[in-house]
Amino acid sequence: MPVPPRPAKLALQDGTVLKGEAFGADGEVFGEVVFNTSLTGYQEILTDPSYRGQIVTMTYPHIGNYGVNADDVESAGVAASALIVRDACDMPSNYRSQQSLGEFLKRHGIVGLANVDTRALVRRIRVHGAMTGVVSTTDLDDASLVAKAKQSPELVGVDYVKDVMAKESKGWTDGLHALASPADAVDGPKPKVVAIDFGMKWNIPRHLTDEGLDVTVVPGDSTAADVLAHEPDGVFLSNGPGDPRPLTYAVDTIKDLLGEVPVFGICLGHQLLGLACGGEIFKLKFGHRGANQPVLDKTTGKVEITSQNHGFALDADSLPDDVEVTHVNLNDDTVAGIRHKSHPAFGVQYHPEASAGPHDSRYLFRRFKDMLSASATT
Length: 378
Fold this sequence. Notes:
There is one protein chain. This protein is 22% helix and 30% strand. By secondary structure, the protein is an alpha/beta fold. The chain is globular.
């Protein structure tokens, strides 16, 4: 006999309630409701620590068709609070698939909500901005759910990094999967890089390793003294969740590292670098989340299609004279990259490691390695 559908609902803090069917685990969760425009990559999205505290809505209607496998994860668990889709495929077809998306969510205790009018939901978020919400399979009373959504904490001002960062220092040796690894091996000496983990996607150290770098991962609350004790040739600042402004400990560390070693930051790491240089942060209305964001590299005039996931951005007008804006998002002209004019330090607001997404920006890892080599000769 067919299994009867399990009813579930989403309530937003503005009073909106959407009905759907549960897939994955049962339960009730809170978070900031956001949307991602990627057609693929739902497994990487769910396991990206940057989604801590968020309920993710996929704009592409058919999700789960190629299943889930053990290779395409970006952390040890699922960071997103819940997943909302229009149509959840429970019969995946792909030679790499090991289980369905619903089975994956259930195994990790994550609530999935399907058969939702995601176009209406995304339109509301685009018009009114990202807002807190609650997804529940246990409480289906509209008034009760709306009250809970209004009372749920907002993401602004919360430090989610300490929930997802590495707990201790460790060496990293894994390279990219054979399907993504470059054909030519990188020979020669291996510069030492310390990667500060604020909630780092695993494909980042894989890329650094494939560039021929000796990578050590340290917790996001490490001090400059902790980092320099490893005698690195350079420091990488990772992505991570939420609002960068409460992370004063990370900003202080970066301030102390500037001028000591070359620095490269991605996403949250880029924002923290901007704060350390004297810039300011503001919250975007609904953020940039997807694998199709166009970015202009002002230094070359080339346009890259990039993978992005962030709800905050650097204020270009707040940046001091010794910081140059190198990249801009072509959808809204927000800052997508910066470079320090006096110190070997740069950052980008997007994800050159992709996973999932285009490989247009992979050159940035080589640029970082070249910066290490140039610094070593001066």
